[in-house]
Amino acid sequence: MTNDEFRIKLSRSENFILRYSIFDLIYGLRVSSSSSSANIHGIKIGQGNTTYSNNIVVLGGNTTTNLYGIYESGAASNTSNIYFNTVYLNGAPTSGSLNSACLYNAANSSTRNFRNNIFNNARSNNRASGTHYAMYFASTGGSLTCDFNDYYISGTGGALVCSGSAKTTLPIVTGVTGNDL
Amino acid sequence: MPGRGGTGIQTDYDGITRSLTLPAMGAHEISLTGLVTVYASAGIATADYLTLQDAFDAINAGTQMGTLTITINTNVMETATAALNASRGTASYTSIYIYPVTTGLTISGKLAAPLINLNGADNVTIDGRVSGGACTVCTADLTITNTSNSSTARISTIWFINIHSIML
User: Fold this and answer.
1) Which chain A residues touch B18 with a CB distance below 8 Å?
2) Which of A66, B30, B141, B144 is the most exposed place for a label (fewest CB within 10 A)?
């Protein structure tokens, strides 16, 4: 086991990732109980001009860990098209303050197209104190199209989107065109 | 929930063909009935849209052509002007017939601009009767309203520009 687990990771690629199922309720993808800062990624996007479509990502469990359904690095000179994916996170962590996000965008240097996805984050704190986002933007601005996505949160500590700050209502992002209103 | 086309993704997780105009969000395609349906004799035969604006945009782009019938399937909220261009350039139609499929339907919006702009579009018929008059007792069953209270000039519910069309 490592502190940075993932099911798909791409680096320097120009590919299409489609119709991939990731159903892993931590029973098969575990982090050490002694770890307090582990990350689990369903799909981790490094570099490349890539389209990710029609994937189903389900991650959960109660262990203290960051959970990312799809992690987009936001690296410069790259394009990430994320279309028609269904991401569902659940679990009820009992300790720690680690967060989760169905889609996590780490930087704003890439060209990002996020459309027609379902992001359902049902992860809920059970004495833990993390925040559980449908979508998380580490930086605002940049080349971003983020439109016609379905965002749903239901647990304690849930937040619709982080874009500069946590938002619980639309619009989720501002200052760019073609986005969820 | 409906998403939007234009991504280039043609099938879903199971390989089922996605709707070009009104695909479902997420990995699984689900057949969604649009608020507005356009039936065409050329191009895509049948396509669903969320708004009349989307339908007109597709007609203007030549996605659907020929003899066109547009059904209003439920109440429609327009968020921008539904502008229909003349039949030239990419747009190619001989006639357009618009009617509601059930009673009491509304096409509405609150726009500081025309709700519907027939921009040189000839041979357009908007028939407020259910099923275009194929009803036993026909009443006015389609209300088109722009609720804008803006004082700006040239705000209309329907704006006609150089057209030969019919309102029934």
Assistant:
1) 84
2) B30
| Chain A CB contacts of B13 below 8 Å | 19, 21, 54-56
3-state SS, residue B57: helix
Please state, as a whole number, how many other Cβ atoms lie within 10 Å of the Cβ of residue A94.
Answer: 12
CA distance, residue B133 to nearest chain A CA (Å)? 36
Flag if A150 and B26 touch (Cβ within 8 Å): yes
Q: A106: alpha, beta or left, given left = phi > 0 and alpha = psi -120 to 50? A: alpha
Look up the pTM and report it: 0.67
Give the DSSP H or E segment for B145. Answer: strand B142-146
Contacting A with CB below 8 Å, chain B residues are 1-4, 7-9, 11-13, 15, 18, 23, 25-28
- What's the alpha-carbon Rg for chain B, to the nearest Å? 16
**Helix (H) or strand (E) run with residue A132 in it:** strand A132-137
**What's at A21, amino acid-wise?**
S
Tokens found for residue B48: 């669903």
> How confident is the model over A105-160, as pLDDT tens digits?
999 999 999 999 999 999 999 999 999 999 998 888 888 888 889 889 999 999 88
Of the candidates B4, B9, B28, which has its C-beta nearest A53's C-beta?
A: B9
Q: By CA distance, what is A52's nearest residue in B?
A: B9
Q: Where are the domains of chain A?
A: 4-167
The mean predicted confidence, pLDDT, of chain B is 84
Task: Output the CA–CA distances (angstroms, integers) from residue B115 to A42, B82, B118, B154, B157, in the order listed.
Answer: 45, 6, 10, 11, 5
Q: Is A88 within 8 Å of A21 (Cβ atoms)?
A: no
- In the block, tokens 């680690």 appear at A98
Is A79:A47 a contact under the CB 8 Å cutoff? no
Q: How far apart are CA B49 and CA B67, in angstroms?
A: 18
Q: Which residue has the tokens 């930086």?
A: A139
Taking the Cβ of residue A150 and every Cβ of chain B, the question of whether any pair is shorter than 8 Å is answered with yes
**pLDDT tens digits along B60-102:** 999 999 999 999 988 898 988 999 999 999 999 999 999 998 8
